[in-house]
Amino acid sequence: MASWDLIGELTVTNTWQFFPNNVIASETFRITTAIQNLDDWNIWKFKSAAYLIFHYPNSDASPPYYIKVREFPTIYEFRIPEVLTSQGYLLRTPAIIRASRYLPLTPNQNFAQWNFKLEAWL
Hints:
By secondary structure, the chain is mainly beta. Helix content is 10%, strand content 42%. The chain is globular. The termini are close together. The relative contact order is 0.40.
């Protein structure tokens, strides 16, 4: 029976971070975002989003997917390109980085901190 498999949960930063687990063949994902401090988010610090990218074993990478902070878990479809599936490339490594118009000049500590949880439907 299929279920949600945790790929990892990271705090979004200004540098690329790879999730601790690879994804095999799944194209359906659930992303949950959680703000760590609402006062920082709403009053004191810059808000941000994230870019999610998938790296493949043959050195290809997906385009960056823009992910907003949402109050509820959201389901996304991130297809593996047909040219890669036909060659047997079903394993991919996800990575995230902060997305903001204030980059690259604004340091991490000036942004409100939030978590990015990635799960795959397997």
